[in-house]
Amino acid sequence: MLLKPLFLVVGAASVALAASNEPLRSCFENAITDRGSFAFAGDLFYDRIVNRYNLNIPVTPAAVAFPTSSQQVADIVKCAAENGYPVQARSGGHSYGNHGLGGTDGAVAVDLKHLKHFSMDNTTWQATIGAGSLLSDVTRWLYHAGGRAMSHGICPQVGSGGHFTIGGLGPTSRQFGAAIDHVLEVEVVLANSSIVRASDTENQDLFWAIKGAASAYGIVTEFKVRTEPEPGTAVQYTYSMEFGHPKKQAALFKSWQAFVSDLTLTRKMASTLTVLENSMAISGTFFGTKEEYDNMNLSNKFPGANGDALVFDDWLGLVSHWAEDVILELAAGIPTNFYAKSTSWTPQTLMTPETIDKMFDYISTVDKGTLGWFLLFDFQGGYINDIPTNATAYAHRDVLIWLQSYTIDLLGHISQAQISFLDGLNKIVTNGELPFAAYPGYIDPLMPNAAEAYWGTNLPRLQQIKEQVDPNNVFRNPQSPSPAKKDSF
Ligand SMILES: Cc1cc2nc3c(=O)[nH]c(=O)nc-3n(C[C@H](O)[C@H](O)[C@H](O)COP(=O)(O)OP(=O)(O)OC[C@H]3O[C@@H](n4cnc5c(N)ncnc54)[C@H](O)[C@@H]3O)c2cc1C
Ligand SMILES: *[C@@H]1O[C@H](CO)[C@@H](O)[C@H](O)[C@H]1NC(C)=O
Ligand SMILES: *[C@@H]1O[C@H](CO)[C@@H](O)[C@H](O)[C@H]1NC(C)=O
Ligand SMILES: *[C@@H]1O[C@H](CO)[C@@H](O)[C@H](O)[C@H]1NC(C)=O
Ligand SMILES: *[C@@H]1O[C@H](CO)[C@@H](O)[C@H](O)[C@H]1NC(C)=O
C-alpha cells in the first residue's frame, strides 16, 4: 500500500525534472548529433553516468555531456549559458567536493574523457595534451615520447584538467615546480562560448587565472607543457614506527620537522610523514643514487623508527610504486564517503615543540568517530617557493609543509564526530588562527571562508578577471571566486 504512492511521487518528480530541462535538452540535440554524448537527470542509468567520487556529497547535475571536440564544448557551454545553468568541466572526476559535477545540484557537467590527444615536439620537448587525459596517461605518453616527464601528484586516476589548473604537487615538485608551473599555453572555451588560447603573450590575465583557479574561468580543452628528462635512479625510503606513547610520536615528528626545515636540504629529497590509527611513517623518494642516499644518514635522523629503502632505476616502475601506496588505494580505488581538510606552515609559522606535543596528546585522547582516518604531512618548498605569490593564481608559494587530513566511512555518511576531530586538529596545529591557508585541490566543502583560504592575496585580482571574462558567473561551484562587485563606481 505504501509503495505505490511512493512510486507516483518519484515518477512525478522526474517528469517535472525532465520537463524543466527540456529547453536545454533540445538545444543539445540541435548542437550535438552524436549518440550517447549527453544524459539528463531522470534518464536510465543516470547515477552510473554521474559517477560521484565522494559519496558523502550526493550531487546530481542537471546533465552530463561528453563532447568530442573543442567546438562541441563551446556548443554545450552556449546552450547551458543561454538557459541559465552553471557549468563545470570534469576531467578525472577526483574533486573531493564533486566540483567536477558542479558541487551542488542542477549544473551542467562537461566530461572531457574524449579529449585525450597527445603530441610531443621533440625539438622543444614541449608536449600538447588533451585536458581529458588522466595522470596515468600523461606519465606513459611522456615516457614513450623520448623519456620525458613532468611534475604531478601520485594518484594515476586524477585528471590533468583538474590537476594542471589547480596546482598539482608531487614528488618532483621541489625540483621542477608544480604541474601548473609546467603549463605554457592553454586552449580554453569561455563563458561566451568563444574558443581562445592563453599564454604569457596572449590573454595574459586569463592565463594567470587558469593557473590555479581555472574552474571559474572556462573549460581548458588542451595544455601545452614543458617537460623534463625522466629522473634517473631514485631511492624510495620508509621509516616507520608502531604507535606507542604520544611523547614518542611527538619526538619522531620533531625530528622530521627539523629535517625538512633545514633550508640547505637538497631538492632531490621528497618526504611525507603519515599518521594512522596504529602507526606512523616517514616516507618519500630521494632522486639520486643509493650511495648519495646512504651518505645522508637518515637513520641517525629518525631514531626509534625502522628504515627500509628500495632502489628504482626506471621511472615507470617508480611511478607505479607510488600508486600502490596503501592510503592511495583506499582513497582512489573506489568511490567512498570521506571528508578532508588541509592547512599549511611556512618556515616562519612551524609548530613549536609544545604544539607538536599538544597535537599528539589530542590524537591519542579525542573521539575520532572512526578507525578510518589518516594525516599526511607533505614536505613542499623548493622550486615552488622560487616563484612570487602573484605570478599565478595559485597563491601558496611560501608553504614548507602541507597537512592533508582525511576521515573515511566505507559504509555510510561521515559523522559529526569525524568532522569535529579534523576541525579540532586544525585549530590546535594552527593555534586557532584564521583564515587557514588551504590547498585548493583538496576541496573542503564545509569551509566557510573557502575562496580566501584557497587563493589568499590573489583573490581580489581573480574577482576582477572573473568580472571581465565571466560576469554572469556561468562557470561556478560553491567555492569558486565570484565576479568583483560592480558597485565600485
Ligand atoms: C586519490 C587522490 C590523490 C591526490 N593526490 C594529489 C597530489 O598528490 N597532489 C595534488 O596536488 N593533488 C592531489 N589530489 C587532488 C587533485 O589534484 C584534485 O582533486 C584535482 O582537482 C582533481 O582533478 P580531476 O580532473 O580528477 O577532478 P574533476 O572532479 O574532474 O575536476 C576538479 C575541478 O577542476 C575543474 N576542472 C577539471 N577539468 C577542467 C578543465 N579542463 N578546465 C577547467 N577546469 C577543470 C572542475 O570543474 C572541478 O572544479 C589528489 C586527489 C585524489 C582523489
Ligand atoms: C624526433 O622525432 C622524429 C620523428 O619521429 C625522429 O625521426 C627523430 O629522431 C626524433 N628526434 C629526437 C631527438 O628524438
Ligand atoms: C654520517 O655518519 C657517519 C658515521 O657516523 C659520519 O662520519 C658522517 O659524517 C655522517 N654524514 C652526515 C652527512 O651526517
Ligand atoms: C607582482 O608583485 C611585484 C611586486 O609587488 C610587481 O612588481 C609585479 O608586477 C607583480 N606581478 C604581477 C604578475 O602582478
Ligand atoms: C568573449 O569574451 C572574451 C573575454 O571577455 C572577449 O575578449 C571576446 O571578445 C568575447 N567574444 C565575443 C564573440 O563576444
Question: Mind sketching the topology for me?
Answer:
Layout: H1 3-20, H2 22-31, E1 38-40, H3 46-50, E2 63-65, H4 70-82, E3 87-90, E4 108-111, E5 118-121, E6 126-130, H5 135-144, E7 148-149, H6 160-163, H7 173-176, E8 183-189, E9 195-199, H8 204-213, E10 219-226, E11 228-229, E12 234-242, H9 246-260, E13 272-276, E14 279-286, H10 290-295, H11 298-301, E15 306-312, H12 315-323, H13 326-332, E16 337-345, H14 353-365, E17 373-379, H15 383-386, E18 401-409, H16 416-429, H17 450-455, H18 459-469
Parallel strand pairs: 2-4, 3-4
Antiparallel strand pairs: 1-2, 5-6, 6-10, 7-11, 8-9, 8-10, 12-14, 12-15, 13-14, 13-17, 16-18, 17-18
Bound molecules: flavin-adenine dinucleotide and 2-acetamido-2-deoxy-beta-D-glucopyranose (4 copies).
One 2-acetamido-2-deoxy-beta-D-glucopyranose (NAG) binds next to loops.
